[in-house]
Structure formats: structure tokens, C-alpha cells
User: Fold this.
Amino acid sequence: MTDHRLVPGPRAMAGAVAVGALGAWGSAVAADDERLAGLAPADQAIAREMTAFIARMEDRHFERIGALNGGATFEVLEHSTDDTDYLVRVTRGTVVEKAGTMVAIGKKAQPGRIPGTLLWSRFYSLDVHPKSPRAGMLHATVVVQFYDGGRSYAGGWLGVMNGTRVEEDMAALRAVTDTHFTGHGRDPAVYRQLMVKGTDDTVSQFRRRPDDSGVSFYGPPVFPGDTARSYRFIAELFERFVDTYLDGVAKRAVEPFTPADVAAQDAMRRRWLVDQFLSDPFSSKLVPFEVWSAANVPPVVRF
Assistant:
């Protein structure tokens, strides 16, 4: 089942619309649902933190993107499968050409993923496509899952795919990432390696080409045996990374660019689309096309 709707969004200076006012988005960010009852109290607390985080990121980043674009109107997509309910929100404009978020509400374990009975799950993604070819594309995700037997998982991905690479912007993202890891006594090296090479179930021939300023948490946990601490680490970096990225978008929006910059952006956007069809294990095998294409495909792809 798929439902498409247009929803008016906040004007640039009017403040953010409460996410819960957007129909089915209320269920995505609700602090309570029937699945919470199956979790241990400590896990319930993390689940509520995750849903509150989604609501806050929706308001925070769409308000800022709306300010850059001079306002915002949202396209809302709702889609359900046997294992997941998906909710997508997209806005378009002159500075941020397209920005999309997706919430995936897990109902049961997807084929080929973590074995066992899924008790509770939220996945959240934000994809940003600036108009300026001197600002790269952002892909940022956070996921939290709880299974029977006390098993749990926290992961995510924070990265930029560049056309023309602006060293100042990538250095700022690297500094934010390094500072966050250092402040928690952790080394980002393994997570940078995962960012660059991908996981075992990606297809390297068709994979995206992210800048190594970011990190992938689809690998070993940041804090083994402590999903709560790992989740908080990822969520805090998500917020700082996206804020720093949008600083760069604002700077590049007023800069001139060349035909070579446009060609580089076109090549990056083609590569992202190919990645989603042929390399990414979620979009290529699990997430329906109408969902991921709405949430993260560039507004224009030239061949």
C-alpha cells in the first residue's frame, strides 16, 4: 500500500511544524507504541530516545533547510510491506534542490539480516542534494533494533559524496568526526575504512564513492556490549555532522561554479543512482523502489 500527499511546511521564519501533526508521521515518532511493552525497561528508554531524536532532527534540519530555501512544502509518502512501514518526507528548493527523510518502522526481521524475532526497530535517514555542484550530497542514517533473547543493535552512516571536492568543507567534517571520537576515547580508523570500502554485502564495482571525512557504523559496535552507549554516540555525531555539512552548503550556495563542477556533480549523482540499484544491499534487495527513490535519489540524474 502506498499513499502520496502534499503537506504545507514551515515558512523560512515561521518555525518548524510539529512532526506529529503530519498524519502517519505521528506514529513514527510517538514516544509509546504497543511494541515497547515487549522490551526490557532499559531498552524501552533507548527506544523512546530514538523516537524523540527522530522528531527533533525532523524539526531541526527541515527548519534550517526551509530557511535556506525561503520556505518549504513537503511531499509525504507512506508505504507498507509485510516487514516494514515506511514514511518519507521530501522538500525541494533553490539552494537545497531536494532533501528527503525516511523512517522505517520494523515489524519483523527482514530476510538475510539479524536472525531472530524482531521486537522493536527504527531506521532514520536524511539525504540532501544541494543545487550548487560545489557542495556534495549528504547521506546520514541511524538505526536501533531490539530482538528476542536480549540482542540489540545500533548502527548508522554519515558521509558525503562529492562532485567537486571542497577541502575546507571536508576538513570541517573530518574535524567534527575526529573530535567526537577522541572525546569518547575511540579511534575512527575502522569506521573510516568501512565508509570507504563498504561492507561485505555491497558490490564494489557499482558502489558510491564517499569522502573519507565521514564514517560508517555498519560494522563493529562502538562500545561492544553496550547498545545504549553506542546509539548515543552515533546520534550525537549525526547531529553535529549534519549541522557542519549544512554550514558548508550555505557557503557554497553563493559561490560561482564552472561547467566542470556541473559535470562532476552529474557523475556523482549517476554513481549514487547506480549504487542504489546495484550495490547497496538495502535498496537493491529489501527497500521498495518507490520508497528509496522518493527519499534519496537526486532530483536530476543525467546520462
Observations:
- Residues 2-296 form a domain with the oxygen-dependent coproporphyrinogen oxidase fold (CATH 3.40.1500.10).
- The helical segments are 25-29, 41-69, 167-183, 189-197, 227-252, 259-278, 289-296.
